[in-house]
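[[Local backbone shapes]]
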Amino acid sequence: MAFRYENNEVQLDPDVAIGVKFPFNGRRIFNSTFTTLDQSSSNLKNLLLTGRGERYELLDFGTALKFLLFEQQTDELKIAIDEEIRESVNRWLPYISIQKVTIDFDSPEDSHITIDIVYTVSNIEAEESLTITSNLNGAVSIE
């Protein structure tokens, strides 16, 4: 029988690594994270950039953002992207609370979408943000 382990401990010690930093392209291949906030950011980036069905043995993990980002730019698409982000984060990263999702189609380039996400991590009084961008070439980046 499976059970869920809740760890409410916040790690602030800069000398103890607690996870792997995303993206996985450091000098040592896998860079480490040393705070709960950094690890939460890496976990969120990993979730948002993983397509559903990509993760071995956990096919429901991830989002459909890679497919949604290249759909016709309408108000319905903004709603679908917002719902996709919120539902996936609520399911897989319940310790992250999405405060605001802003989707911008208005850019000088066609087929360019910018998504700004403002979030907080439970037990930490800090508000963080990240930005996802896509362009005509099919490149998706997250910062």
